[in-house]
Structures are given as structure tokens and as C-alpha cells.
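Example 3.
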Amino acid sequence: MNVPIEYFVLLSMALFSIGLFGILTRRNALMFLMSVEIMVNAANINLIAFALYHGNLTGQVFALFVMALAAAEVAIGLGIILVLYRNFRDVDVTVPTTMRW
Amino acid sequence: MAVFELPDWAALAPALILVATALALFVIDSINPHTKNRSLLAGTTAVGSLAALGVAVWFMVAGVGTPTAAGGRGVVELFGGQLVVDQMALFFMTVVSVVTALVAVASYDYMGDHAYQAEYYSLMMLAATGMATMAAANSLVTIFIALELASLPSYALVSILKDNRGSVEGGLKYFLIGALSSAIFVYGISLVYGATGHLQLEAIADNLQGAGEYGGLLGLGILMLIGGFAFKTASVPFHFWAPDAYEGAPAPVAAFLSSASKAAGFVIAFRVFTTAFPLEPTTAVIGVDWTLAFIILAIVTMTLGNFAAATQDNVKRMLAYSSIGHAGYALIGLAGLSADGGEIVMGAAMMHLLVYGFMNTGAFLFVALAEYWGVGRTFEDYNGLSNQAPVACFALGIFMFSLAGIPPLGGFWSKYFLFTGAIQAATANSAMLIVAAALVVNSAISLYYYARLVKAVWIEDPVSGRDTLAQPTGLYAAIIFAAVLTVVALPVFGPIADAALEAATVAIS
Amino acid sequence: MTNGPQLRLGESLLPGILAVALFGVMAMIALNTGFADEMVGFPEGISVTSEIGYALFDFTALQSTEGSIGNTEPFLVSFLLVAVVLDAALDAALVLAKRETEGKPIAALSSVSTGDSASTQPAATDGGAEDGSSRSSGGEQR
């Protein structure tokens, strides 16, 4: 029943890297958003595991706030992707190139 | 001295006034949806931010946030140390609110025909609230939430011209990089929490001694935190959103982001690294001196920004890269910290951010004026504008020469302090000599492209067939006010310098 | 067309190597960190949920002092700030999502047809591919 903390940290690092992998390889804005969400949730795993490790609840409460903020961020992200689609008829992040990257 | 004593929470008044203004704008919008009463909306915004400015300056003069030993009223800690109001917080609240006021007045004309007036101003006030809270945040929790509060409305503000492809593209890139960097930032927070068990900055510092075994974890966490700061301040390695977002955004929004948002990014960096990660104990844990990271970042950022700016043809893009360059100058404030000092570099960086707030906002507002006229975007399109609009072009000259650091303008003095501070810090860390040299070389390069714009406006022959140019009251007022502030910064530079140095001393100790 | 997820190999995967390398570095750091064998954990007989509630609203007097729970930080100001952030997100998302007809925003949540919606795009999850086969549809191709 007592899982060592290393396993939690490795799990969260793996999730973080998976999210980063998605950001680096995907060109769909929605996929990008999901990948960012995975990275944020990797941080949540860390926070909750470390809360148990240190025995104080700071990490757990902060994880709640991070979830709320992630939801707010997605709301705005979807708004921007909606406007992007109306203008470019596409959600590919490499399509808008009126300016150089 | 004071007839009555304000309660402790009143120290947050500048931020509270900003959020109250945002809520007032919501109320106006809900009573009269789609109102086009721009005077009311822009007026409310300007009055709110000027009130916040007045209160912040009054608090600073009255000694709120100065330690009692130095004759002040003491640093105010609120909500169990989650927020702190000291001189540095008030200083940056001043910067944020003055920029907000300028941008609000300028938006009166620029956003003239826009469908979402009330939303535009309320988003701006909410972003300003976030930036003012960032100045006071004293825990990684409040820092992260305030950072999101400043970022989320900014994404929407950049893409608020919903039918304009450039605006939407700028907003998308800003959002994508912003979301990525905030994910990295929060992961960094989780690692710091893992290493120390706390998120409140003083508590982190207190627990550094016990974090000996977690050196690698803490180092990785600090590296990721630096990524988050780099995004907010538009420095390397998360700088590449800046040119596109600034170019695509409405020019007043670009002014707001490049001045106020950058200053707010620096205040959290200053606070986290001086309070939570004091140099000696942190070096003992992670084995590397974190100023090294900032020395590298400062040199790379200022060089990249200035060289890229010199190759641009588009004026707004040139200003965007120059703002990256200025982020590099302000990074010297962190690079030059040493175990036994560094108030001078950090105070100089704070002065630079204040003066930069005036001159850079003014420069972007001139671009806003040019966009309002519809004269075009490149240097050639600006040729000979002084024939038709000498006053605005004179103000532009002041902004450009101040940005380049020509004496005796304000930009020169803050760079001079940065330079002397860097030289002084070189006694502790000889790498600072390279930084000082880079500062001088880059300032020389920057003179080339700033002078190029002044030359285009004043010396080149006017483009033939240009109509007479309108004189929008709000934009003119904001530009002239910014120019006056840039010039007035000279005689009062002594007190500003004292305030900044004092604030830096309090923050470091 | 709905397909199952497919692993696409090729050049688009190259930057992903960076992510894999990063994982390697991070895992090295984590494995070399000397974590304590035992987690501190939470003491028996207290309700973690109510402790979270006390921390959320700065009820320090009610907070348990057993174990390290007393080290939990107060979060009231964060709670208030998040309320403002959600306001901002709502405001921003509504501005972005509203549609305009002739420069006037129309209600985003209106259930009444505005009459001219027939002339605009019909809603379609595949993105209303009006230019048909000239464009690859769907997100899985990207």
C-alpha cells in the first residue's frame, strides 16, 4: 500500500514529456490544447504526491486551484481557436502565416 | 502624522481600485449592453487607473512598505504572508497603473468603431488587476494565479479584432506559447514544492537548508520557473511570441503588453529570486549559482533583440524586437545580484522599467496613431510625417532618443545606473564585465534603428498624395502625456532613483 | 471520416525526440534524488476534506495541528483571486465566441434563430468542409 514517491514523480515526468511530445509534433490547435492540459495535470500529480510526502495539504489545495485555472485557460483557448477557424477555415497552427513565426 | 489609521488590507488599495473599476465596467455593460458611449467607458477606465496611480504614489510617499527602522510604516503582510505590500510592490503598481491610464485614453480613438467597447476596457482593467497583484504576490500560489489573471485577458485583447487575420494570428501564437509556458511554470512550482514542502516564498527560503538531497529537483524546478518568467517578460527562450503578438495586436494593446506586462513579469522574478532563493543557500543546494543563468539570458536576449530589430522594415515589429532587447537590459538586475549586495543593479533595473513604461508606451501609441491615420506600416510609409503632424513627431523623437539612451533623457540615466551597477557587481563576478560591455555595444546598435525612424519622420521627403491627417484628441493627449512624463522623469530622477534603490534594498535584505 | 488513432512516423516526429530526451534527463534527476523511504502522510482520524476546507478559507483556528498538517498555508486570497480570474475568462471567452451580424454582436446563448443563419455555414463537426475533397478533413491528419 505504500508506493514510494519516486514512482509518482516518474509518472508525472512521463506525462509531462508526453504532453511536450504532443506539442512538438502536432499541428492541430485542439491537440495542442490537450497536450498542454496533460502537462498541467502532470504537475497536479506531483503536487498531490508531494503533499502526502511532506504531510501538509498545501499541494492538494493548490492542485484544486490549478484545475480551475486550467479550465479557464481552455475556455479562452477554445474561443481563440473558434475565431481562428472563422478566419482561416482551419485549426492548423501552421496555416496562419501572414507574419513570420 | 496621519489623522486616522487605515486598516492593513487598505495597503492593497491600488489593486482593489483596479478590480472595482473592472466590475463597474461590467455593471455599465449589463445596464446598457452594446453601449457605444465611449467617453463613459474610457473615462471610467482612465479615472480608475489614475486613482490607483494616485493611491500608489501617496502610499509610497507616506512610507507604507518602508521598514519601521527606516522611518516608514512597515512592510504590510496580508493573508498569512500570501501577499506583501512593500516599496517594490507599490513601485510596480505605479508603473502598471500609469501605463493603463495612458493606454485607456489612447484606446478612446483607436477602438472607435469597435463592437465590444465595454468588454475591451473591462478586460484591460482585469489584466491590470492581475499585474498589480503580481507586484504584491508573495507565494508561488498567488504568483501563479495573478500571472494567469494577467495573461488570460491579454490573450483575448490581442485577438479582439476578430475579423483581422493578423490580430487572430497574433492572439493564437501568444496563447499557444503562453499556455505552454504556464504549464512549464506550474510544473516548476510542483518541483519546488517537492523539494521544500512549501509554496510561500519565505517558507521556501527557510526550508532550503533541509533540501540538501533534493538539489537536482530544486534546480530543475528553478529552471522551469525561469521559463515562466521569460515568457512574461518576453526574453529568451520564450520570446518568439512577442514580434507576432505585438504586430498583430491593436497598437494600444501592444503598448500595454510590452510595458506593463513586462514590468509585472520582472517584479515576480525579482521577488521570487530575492526572497525564496537567496543566493548562498540556494547555491549550496543546487550547486550552481543561478545568476549564471541570468547572465547568459541577459546577454543573449539583448543581443538577439537588438540585432533582429535592426533588420526590420516594419516599424511595429522593430519596436517589438527592441522591447525584447530592453528585457535583456532589465535582466541585468537579476544577473548582477551577489551575496553581499546588488541593490544598485536591481534598483537600476526597476528605474529602467519605469522609464521604459513611459517611452515605450509612447512609441507604440505613435504607431497606434499611424495605424489610425492608415499611413502604412514600414519605415518608408512614415516618411515626412513631421510636415503634417509636427507635435506627435516631436514626441516620437523624444521616445526614440530616450529608448536609445541619449543623454540627457530618462532612458540614458537608467542605462547609466545599470552600467555602473554592472561594473560594480563585476568585483564579485567578473562575468558581469561582459554584460556591461554587451549593454554598451547593444545600445550603440539600437541607436541605428531608432535614429532611422526619426530620420524617416523628420528628414525624408513626404510620401506624395497623402491626405491631411486627423488629430484624434485621445491619442494625441496620451502621446503628449507620455512624452511629458519621459522628460519630467529627468528633474525627478533623483527621487525615483532613491525610491527604486530603497525598494531594491528592502527586497534583497 | 473517423479513424482510429494511427502512429504516423516520419519527419513530423523528429522534434519529439527532444521530448523523449527531456524525459531521460528528468528521470535521471528524479532517480538520483535521495527521497526518504517513508512518506510523512496524514495522521489517522482526521478528515482531509475538512482540513482542505479550513485551509481554503483561512480557518487557522480550526486547522488540525497533528503531524505536519499545521504547515498547510492559508488560501483565502487565492480563492478570491480565482473568482476574479474566472470572471475574466468568462468575459474573454464570450467576447471571442460571439458572432456579429452587420457589426452588431448577437446573443451568444440565444436559442431563437436569427433568420439569416440559413445563409451562413451549417454547423458540422467535420468543419463544414464546403470545399469538399480539395482539402483533407479532420484533425487526425495533422
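Chain A touches chain C through 49 residues (CB under 8 Å). The radius of gyration of chain A is 17 Å.
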